[in-house]
Design brief:
With 332 residues, the chain is an alpha+beta fold. The protein has two domains: 3-173, Band 7 domain (Tetrahydropterin Synthase, Chain A); 175-272. The chain contains eight helices and nine strands. The chain has helices spanning 84-90, 106-126, 131-137, 140-152, 154-159, 175-277, 282-296, 307-331, and strands at residues 3-7, 10-14, 19-25, 28-34, 37-41, 45-51, 55-64, 70-81, 161-173. A hairpin with a 2-residue loop joins β1 (3-7) and β2 (10-14). It is rod-shaped, with a radius of gyration of 72 Å. The termini are far apart.
Length: 332
């Protein structure tokens, strides 16, 4: 918006660089340019301020498809004044010389014109296609069609307007139709999710089966090795027993041979001793017997002397000197 300063009958206007100023005095064009500043007399001057920067115009409208469904088109048109002086002759951009504000709404008029042309072009495109085709193609064809139509429109060129870009933000059916169209896609996605879940469960079951088979194989292998170990231990025990039995047999044979040798020696010695005693006197034999008996005794608690034993001992004592005398006489 231009700034206007009053100084008595004259006024000073200062504009921004983004504004194009067109000045008429007494019906004639006297000044035109961007970012101007000048003195003027309000009684004879008319000034227009035309935006020289890019302006955005948003639009939302509905169109009916070939299958009689309502489609909402939403987007933005960016335009600029390519020929400000020509635009000033077609659209009123006159400003109030007291405050610098526009007297009318020329931007709304331009926006209505651009939206109307865009709606007409979009309706022509949508009405020849079904909702499914529109959703499959997306917003790009509609956007390109509107941009081409606005660029080729002769009225816009004559007015000095240039369309910079057209952006379609959305191309959507009604809420009920959108939910109906989303249902098959949702069901397919749900089916894919269920299939993935079933596949995952099947893989888990397969892995569990593989683990169970592996555990079973491990148990079978361990049982086989345990059986082999038990058989080997039994074989080792049998061989140990056989070895011990053989060693015992050999030891027994050696012990038996030793016993036989000892008994044979003992029997030989006993035989020789008996041979020596075979012709001995009975008294000597009794003496040897008593001696052997005395050698075996370690303790005598009670000694019973009977008359028979005394008579026998007396006889032995009496007989011994006589035998000794007889022997002496014989030697003489």
């Amino acid at each position: 918006m231009a700034e206007i300063t009053r100084f008595f009958a004259y006024r000073y206007l200062r504009s921004e660089a983004a504004s194009h100023i067109v000045v008429f005095r007494r019906g004639e064009l006297v000044r035109s340019g961007r970012g101007l500043g000048f003195w003027f007399n309000a009684d004879h001057t008319s000034i227009m301020e035309i935006p020289a920067d890019d302006r955005d115009t948003d639009f939302v409208f509905q169109a009916r498809s070939r299958d009689y469904q309502v489609v909402t088109v939403q987007g933005t048109i960016t335009w600029r004044a390519a020929a400000p002086e020509a635009l000033a002759t077609r659209v009123d951009f006159t400003i109030d010389l007291r405050h610098g504000r526009l007297r009318t709404d020329p931007l709304d008029r331009i926006a209505s014109l651009l939206i109307g042309l865009s709606q007409y072009q979009a309706a022509r495109y949508v009405e020849h296609r079904t909702v499914a085709d529109l959703l499959a193609e997306g917003a790009a064809p509609v956007q390109d069609g509107i941009a081409a139509a606005l660029a080729a429109d002769p009225r816009l060129r004559e007015m000095g307007l240039a369309v910079v870009t057209v952006r379609i933000a959305g191309l959507s059916p009604s809420a009920e139709l959108a939910r109906a169209l989303e249902t098959p896609t949702f069901e397919r996605a749900q089916g894919m999710a269920d299939e993935a879940s079933f596949t995952r469960r099947a893989q888990a079951v397969e892995k569990e089966r593989a683990i169970a088979e592996n555990e079973l194989s491990t148990k079978v292998e361990l049982a086989r090795r345990q059986a082999a170990l038990i058989a080997q231990e039994d074989e080792n025990a049998r061989r140990t027993a056989e070895g011990q039995a053989e060693a015992g047999r050999i030891g027994a044979q050696a012990e038996a041979a030793r016993i036989r040798l000892v008994e044979a020696a003992r029997n030989g010695a006993e035989g020789e001793r008996l041979a020596l005693l075979q012709g001995a006197d009975p008294a000597v034999l009794q003496t040897l017997t008593l001696r052997a008996f005395a050698e075996k005794l370690t303790r005598i608690d009670t000694l019973n002397i009977t008359p028979d034993l005394t008579a026998a001992l007396g006889g032995m004592l009496r007989g011994a000197p006589q035998d000794a005398t007889r022997a002496t006489r014989s030697d003489r």
